[in-house]
Amino acid sequence: MDPLFLAYSYFRRRKFKESADICTKLLEKNPYDQAAWTLKTRALTGQVYVDEVDVDEEGIAEMLMDDNAIANVSRPGTSLRKPGTSSQGGPSQGVRPTSQSGRPLSGFVRPGTQGGRPGTMEQAIRTPRTAHTARPVTSSSGRFVRLGTASMLSTPDGPFINLARLNFSKYAARPNLAKALFEYIFHHENDIRNALELAALATEANQYKDWWWKVQLAKCYYRLGMYRDAETQLKSAIKQQEMVDTFLHLGKVYVRLDQPLTAVETYKQGLEKFPGETTLLTGMARIYEGLTEMDNAVKLYKDVLHFDNMHVEAVACIATHHFYTDQPEVALKFYRRLLQMGVYNAELFNNLGLCCFYAQQYDMTLTCFERALSLADEATVSDVWFNLGHLALGICDHNLAYQCFRLALSNNNDHAEAYNNLGVLELKRGHVEAARAFFQAAFVIAPHMYEPHYNFAALADQLGDLQSSYVSARRAVENYPNHTDSQELLKQLRQHFSLL
Amino acid sequence: MSGGDSGNVQLQEVLPKQGQVYQEDMPTVVLCKPKLMPLKSVTLEKMEKMQKEAMEEVKQQELKELGQDAEMFKGY
User: Fold this and answer.
1) How many CB atoms lie within 10 A of CB A55?
2) Contacts of residue A386 in chain B, CB cutoff 8 Å?
3) Which residues pair with A109 in a beta bridge?
4) What is the pLDDT confidence band of residue A404, given thresholds at 50, 70 and 90?
């Protein structure tokens, strides 16, 4: 068989490594074989390709030294920086746990939404304490670079294409080579500067008439943090040819510029051209979720399901919403649907177990959790144990609950929720000092939660340590302004102090 | 039942003179809520997988290099 044909066949079947190997052999025989060269670049790109729209990692530096935002003090409901300022209140923190950014926990994680924006430098630097949510210092030192260097290391005789020795203007004029080369530089080598140079030359070579190159230029600008330039390129690309991808990228640029409402407008524009496009709808829903306007978000996710009823993100987010609005049986239906669709992992079984328990379908609960435990890896197993602890609390088996929370901690030493709940259990047993220590550990690890602050304050108040109680109660109110018990405690303490 | 005069019975409240009635004041504490685990997007899973593989490969290479060094120092 013709080796090139075989290589193409491997490429189509997504066996990129085999395809690249064959191409390497062909190129050894004839280094000027353009077909083999292009195919090899494409195969190497395919190995590390991820959809650029979904990739979004914000480093500490970008976040804190970001001067792109228009207003430092924005009007309520117009900024992604301060969640919960929108007129429409999100779910109460007393019911739905929040993530570090102060947003309600999402039903779905995407790259970039894991950490959320911490408000202050102090908080941002403290974040990477927990290894699971470690945030890179800048996005150019994050995942991207690590992948790039790894790909260099793994080829013993250096990189496939020596970028420093390429004559970009020669390649830019040849569309059949330039596009594959660009994607190789952008995705595989992660050399954004060179990619930008090639894209700029190619745009020029096409007399500024090719929308594809403009989008690529915008992608480079975005990665380099030049959001306004990216915006200009994308708008010009849309004028030439309206594509879903372009709208998505433009929306992403606006999100980064902290203009969520403009981003929503962009998506709406895109939807006029491409009605029922699920990616655009999802983009809008994510923004509303970020603004904690849950009702709007859920409505959009339901629209997504109307057009694509296998959309995992939409199903998961709706299910989470139902679970935390006191309808576990509805959530159960959605999660069951995911199971039918073939999602099979620890997270899903854990959620199914919780839904079964709270929907009073006790026969399935333990089986689900057993599955979840057997499927879990080291990052997730602690959360499964934590939820099992809740189940034990629900059936009043405090010893089992204690052991479960302990196991959660033994798997993840930074599990703040487990520390807090252990504190509560210790207090029930009358071990005041241990409880105090647990609460303290919990709020040191996760200062964004109100529970350990409040618990610590209540306990300290009881022990007569009014000063610590006051400090903690104030923090609790800061984190959850509507928590009545904390407010009461704070009021009591203030009164007490004023009497002194 | 002793007829209709039961309505006239006066109940006297009893306050014990000896021993105090007291109630232990336990602080009301709150538990953290059960946590539904967010599902992972395909992109995220792929990125994590790639990262893991890359780390693995780097480790292997480093081990190999170390192995060569170990060979070198074998005679000493």
Assistant:
1) 19
2) 34-35
3) B40
4) very high
Closest CA to A320 of A101, A90, A483: A90
Task: Closest CB to A51: pick one of B37, B38, B43.
Answer: B43
The rounded distance, in Å, linking the Cα atoms of A489 and A257 is 40
Range picked from A101-115, A118-132, A135-149, A481-495 for highest mean pLDDT: A481-495
Closest residue in A to B30 (Cα–Cα): A451
Residue A152: pLDDT band (50, 70, 90) is very low
CA-closest candidate to residue A407, choices A434, A421, A391, A389: A389
Residue whose pair of structure tokens reads 């950014």 in the numeric block: A101
The sign of the dihedral angle between the CA atoms of A295, A346, A351, A355 is: positive
CA distance B59 to chain A (A): 10
Higher-scoring residue by pLDDT: A69, A474: A474
Q: What's the gap in Å between the CA of B64 and the closest CA on chain A?
A: 12
- Residue with structure tokens 């490594």? A17
Contact predicate A390/A351, CB 8 Å: no
At residue A450 the predicted structure's pLDDT band, cuts being 50, 70 and 90, is very high
Which DSSP helix (H) or strand (E) runs through A109? strand A108-109
pLDDT in tens, A373-397: 999 988 899 999 999 999 999 999 9
State the complex-level ipTM.
0.78
pLDDT tens digits, B11-44: 888 877 777 666 666 778 899 999 999 888 877 7
Nearest chain B CA: its distance from A153 CA (Å): 7
- The answer to whether A451 faces chain B, any CB pair under 8 Å, is yes
Question: Residue A40 corresponds to which tokens in the numbers above?
Answer: 């090899």
Indicate whether A91 pLDDT > 80: no
Task: Check residue A54 and give its pLDDT.
Answer: 75
Interface contact A380, partner B, CB < 8 A: yes
* Residue of chain A whose alpha carbon sits nearest to that of B55: A150
* Nearest CA-CA distance, residue A112 and chain B, Å: 9
Helical ranges in A34-116 per DSSP H: 34-48, 60-64
- Cα of first residue to Cα of last residue in chain A, in angstroms, is 94
* Average pLDDT of chain A to the nearest whole number: 86
Distance, CA of A215 to CA of A227 (rounded, Å): 13
Nearest of A410, A433, A409, A438 to residue A422 by alpha carbon: A438
Domain ranges of chain A: 1-49, 450-500
Residue from B39, B52, B60 whose CB has the most chain A CBs within 10 Å, to mutate: B39
* Residue A413 tokens, joined: 């030493």
% residues pLDDT > 70 (chain A): 84
